[in-house]
Amino acid sequence: MNKLTSKQIKALPLMAQGMSGVDVAKEVSVTPQTVSGWKNDPEFMANLNSIRMEFLESARCQLQQSPTRAVQTLIDLMENSENEEIRRKAALDVLRLTGFEPGKHGCYAWGVGPTDVESMTHQINGTMDIHNMLKGLL
Description:
Elements: H1 6-16, H2 21-28, H3 32-38, H4 42-65, H5 67-80, H6 84-97, H7 117-125, H8 128-137
Helix pairs in contact: 1-2, 1-4, 2-3, 5-6, 7-8
C-alpha cells in the first residue's frame, strides 16, 4: 500500500463494504471520476480485493459459529413456543435437518460423503450412480 494516497487508503474499506463510488468520493473528498480512475490502478484494485477477501473470511467465520445458535433456536421454538403452528414447523425443520424427510430413506450426512472405501472409490471415479443402482438391486 506504500504507493497509495491517504485518500485511496481511506476509500478501500468503504469500497470493500460495497459503498457506491459516488458515496466513497463524498466521504474521502474526491470526485466520482477520481474513484472511477482508481479502479484502473492495479495496486489499488489488488489492495481492494485483499480487503474484500478479509471481509469475506470474517463473514465466513461468523457463519460457521452460527449453526449451534440456529439449532438451539429451532429447539427452543419447538419446545417453548405458545403458537402450536410454530412448534409444528420447528419440529418438521428439525426432522428434515436430521435426515427424516418424508420420501427420503437416507440421512443427509451434511455432505460428508461415503465412509466406506468401495463407495469412496466409486465417487472418485465418477461411478457412484452405477454403484448405488447396483447396491439397490442386491
